[in-house]
Amino acid sequence: MSSQYESIARQHATARVGMWLFLGSESMLFAGLLALFAAYRISYPVAFYEAAKHANLVLGTINTYVLLTSSLTVALALHATELGKRRASVAWLLVSIALGATFDVLKIVEYAQHVGEGFSFGHYYTSTLLPTPAVLYFTLYYALTGLHALHVTAGIVVLIWLALKVRRGDFTPASHVAFENGALYWHLVDLVWIFLWPLLYLLR
Amino acid sequence: MIDYLRAPSGIRSWLGSIDHKRIALMYLVAVTIALVLGGAFAMLMRTKLLISGPGIMQPLTYNRLFTWHGVTMVFMFMIPAIPAVFGNFMLPIMVGAKDLAFPRINLASFYVYCAGAALALWGMIHGGADTGWTFYSPYSTASPTDVAPIAIAIFILGVSSIMTGLNFIATTHMLRVKGMRWMDLPLFVWAIYATSVIQVIATPVLGLSVTLVAMDHALHMGMFDPTLGGDPVLFQHLFWFYSHPAVYIMILPAMGVITELAPTFARKNVLSYKAIAFSSLGIAFVGFLTWGHHMFVAGISQLDAAIFGVMSMFVAIFSAIKVFTWLGTLYKGSIALTAPMLYFFTFIYLFAFGGMTGIAVATTSLDVHWHDTYFVIAHFHFIMIGGTLTAFLAAIHYWFPKMFGRMYPEKWAVLSAVGVFVGFNLTFVPQFLLGNAGMPRRYYSYPDRYHVLNVCSTLGAYLLGSVMVFTLAYLIVALFKGKRATANPWGSRGFEWRVPSPPPTENFEAPLDLRLGCYEYDRE
């Protein structure tokens, strides 16, 4: 326990407060980009509508399931630690890491497909299939999903770190606030995707 | 008990320290360097403007200088200056805590700041950015200079700012000493708290907007490119969504400092504690709804402009509440005219001017005349220098005995305070007149009719610059030669004055005694 705290419980509660503040800050990062998306979509409804038809709905939907499942497995890993079952906790974390990695890989497959079709971003956009402002849909698509994928990747690093800590026995059923905070971060990443999936794939 | 300055010494014990007081001092060194650098850029610009037409520099150099001046002063000095130095040092002591909630994040924030500052400096040496600190697209995405490094540096500096704010919020909520209620908090803490909320909520949007500009410039992403259907005005919306509240990141802590000075030097309880505390929160809240007043001529609708104009005036109401409570605190007080108090009066005078001209430019019809002229420059320098820098100087003098255990030389400090007042007014009053007469900002040259006022302004800037160098010099001397300070040289009731000067590493020898409030001057 650090000396400025009166109890370990207080320190843990403070760590949770800090994490929620951080998540609030993170949300604003995505909120800014989503506001940009909203503004452009209102300006160019037809172009965005047509462009969204070229999004890979199948991969996007699979990824939604993958990510939602990973949130479940992270929760199960946390629950296992709360019960003191270290091996189960590590196992669930490994499943979550694998699901996160699957998400990233599928995302890369999607990007490759879009680039191949000429649906790149900004001045690299070469497709002539769609009216001009559709390029903004793809620029925003890369910006939003790219920023999100960066968060997924950071989340995977956090999960690996947590798995190592669980294996070392750093957490006890009573004391595992870092695990809770790491799981919270993963859930935020998941939550952001819940917004991206309908906006980018389903509005068509 | 050994004090924090002499506790384990050696360079490593400083660079790796997680003691909030040592980190505050490291920040003090860093922001002072930024101030000197930003000031030097300003001096070069003012020197150029001594004469119209080509002079000591190329137009592009001039454009870079005002960009670097803005970036350095806003992101490297003004934003961190009071929170990261005095907030860092005083806030834990004021809430009766041994340290901030997350000391390692505090240290990390300092190094993130250094990394951001280093990248910004590298970008400047590299010759980057001639866009102004506002990075307006489409110019910023087409500029021939290298915009990306400085834009990314601002993103990094923003991360540091978020870390600081997050730490302060968590500390205020979770680490108040047992028995301390919210209404027992020193008002400086309220001000820093309100600031921190803005830092945590608004800064990510700045980070996003400058990153998008960097990517537009370096990777041709075209997010704001009109040829691809993009809308440059959207950039302005995102940018000002942060950068207007950022004005309150700069001024709220300054108001917090000023609030601490009044009761100490008038020996009176503050007039209406609650009004001061809640007006800080009020400014922070309303500050989020005013960003459009920067964009009256950018093509927003008349209705939007009217709403943003009216919202801006609400800020004036909260600010006026503060000014009146400060003056009311002095009423019938026993006022000690020390150097910090001279800065106090300077602040009130300049802030009132800056605030009232703010109302003027928030009025849509008037703003069309003044927009993008020196009137605006003068207006925000009255707030930023007249407000924030003045309060920074007040704070460094007021808390100098506490932070370093030594007194500053009072006579020199009084001289310097007078010099700041004269130098400041000589610099910026002519700029109001220039702006009203139509001289646009950011121009390299001007017609001859603006010559006299420009010379006045430059002479004022030289005076202000010299006074700042003089102040820095005597403060450095006082660090080593100053008279030893007692724990409470001002006879203040403030919590921070109840610990030794300088405080021990753990701040308190015994838990903070709350029986006497921090503004209770009416009883022993």
Structure, explained:
- The complex is a heterodimer of chains A (204) and B (524).
- By secondary structure, chain A is mostly helical.
- Chain A has a single domain, classed as Four Helix Bundle (Hemerythrin (Met), subunit A).
- Chain A is 79% helix and 0% strand.
- Chain A is built from six helices and no strands.
- The mean pLDDT of chain A is 95.
- By secondary structure, chain B is mostly helical.
- Chain B has a single domain, classed as Cytochrome c oxidase-like, subunit I domain (Cytochrome C Oxidase, Chain A, Up-down Bundle).
- Helices cover 68% and strands 0% of the residues of chain B.
- The two termini of chain B are 26 Å apart.
- Classes of the chains: A mainly alpha (204), B mainly alpha (524).
- Chains A and B meet through helix 1 and helix 5 of A and helix 6, helix 7 and helix 8 of B.
Let me know the average pLDDT of chain B.
94
Main beta sheet of chain A: none
Rg over CA atoms of chain B: 22 Å
- The amount of beta strand of chain B, in percent, is under 5%
Q: Counting H and I runs of at least 4 residues, what is the number of helices of chain A?
A: 6
CATH architecture of chain B: Up-down Bundle
Name its key features:
heterodimer; A: 204 residues; mainly alpha; Four Helix Bundle (Hemerythrin (Met), subunit A); B: 524 residues; Cytochrome C Oxidase, Chain A; 0% strand; globular
List the helices and strands and how they pair.
The complex is a heterodimer of chains A (about 200) and B (about 525).
Chain A: H1 8-43, H2 45-52, H3 57-82, H4 86-116, H5 134-168, H6 177-202
Helix pairs in contact in A: 1-5, 1-6, 2-5, 3-4, 3-6, 4-5, 5-6
Chain B: H1 11-15, H2 20-48, H3 59-94, H4 103-125, H5 139-142, H6 148-174, H7 187-219, H8 232-266, H9 273-286, H10 302-330, H11 339-361, H12 364-370, H13 374-404, H14 410-436, H15 451-481
Produce a short descriptive summary.
The complex is a heterodimer of chains A (204) and B (524). With 204 residues, chain A is mainly α.
